[in-house]
Design goal:
Two copies of one chain form a homodimer.
Chain A: H1 21-40, H2 44-48, E1 51-58, E2 66-67, H3 69-81, E3 83-98, E4 102-115, E5 120-134, E6 137-146
Parallel strand pairs in A: 1-6
Antiparallel strand pairs in A: 1-2, 3-4, 4-5, 5-6
Chain lengths: ~160, ~160
């Protein structure tokens, strides 16, 4: 069982070097670390430096799709604001696949914290991020976060936990 | 408004040629066409030829994740069996990004049909597929399908429609 938050870092990785797939994976993992740190710090500006202007995201909450970095900035700002203090954020089962200029990752992501209403939050969801290297810099081009739902009740299953 | 099912095809594309990103995109689009045709025909074997053995999928229904081609085969078989006759399957807003050996796509996917209980099905969801070229052949390495859910009720939003 990992502690919250994880402090694994690849801070020295140059996100703009120009080598192949193995380097790509290392750079993408560093980007993912930066995204996680920005979430823990609730730093919207730091987070958004890693998104393509034309990013398209499928989020936990409606609408069906969020088009463009501004839409994601608004959504993330609202999410950060819903917490008291910092966010405990963890990624499990992270898998990263990278080519020279296209990459993807998937993981189970969890948050712990307290919302503005005083309720404890402890929730996991499935996350996919897809990346492009544009003008020598890796950015998130597509994100997909979700919970499965129960067929009979139509309820999203918000209390599922990773098995390890 | 497109008719159901779409019959766009790239049937002549060689899925194993060895060129770069533009060729990759053409090959991946042909693979996506093949996946769609297999769904419409409810042909599990044809569908599964396009999945990596170690594919990991996040599906509409629990569990949180499906590990490996056998788990996906079981899930898809159950889904196909739940329909009377063929499945009307459509993809909207398809975007494909491909490098030499890694690619991803996202789309809004819809099905129309009649289930075994006689109920009409007309449902859209968000779909992300991630691909790898392994031993010269493109395969699905990761898939993510979902509906957003309403925060207040916790209900999955199963009746959302694409806006165009």
């Amino acid at each position: 069982m990992r502690t919250w938050p994880i402090q694994e870092r690849n801070a020295e990785v140059d996100l703009t070097s120009t080598n192949g797939g193995a380097t790509g994976e290392r750079q993408v993992r560093a980007l993912i670390d930066n995204l996680a740190d920005a979430i823990r710090a609730k730093d919207v500006d730091a987070l958004m430096t890693h998104y393509a202007p034309d990013v398209l995201a499928f989020d936990l909450l409606p609408p069906l799709q969020y088009r463009g970095a501004d839409a994601i900035r608004n959504r993330v700002s609202a999410w950060f604001s819903s917490f008291q203090g910092s966010i405990g954020f963890e990624m499990r089962n992270l898998s990263v696949v990278s080519g020279d200029d296209v990459a993807f990752c998937h993981s189970l992501n969890g948050v712990r914290g307290t919302n503005k209403g005083g309720a404890k939050i402890d929730m996991w969801w499935r996350a996919t991020n897809c990346f492009r290297k544009i003008d020598g810099k890796w950015v998130v081009a597509h994100g997909h976060s979700s919970e499965p739902f129960e067929m009979e009740s139509g309820k999203a299953l918000l209390d599922l936990k990773p098995q390890s």
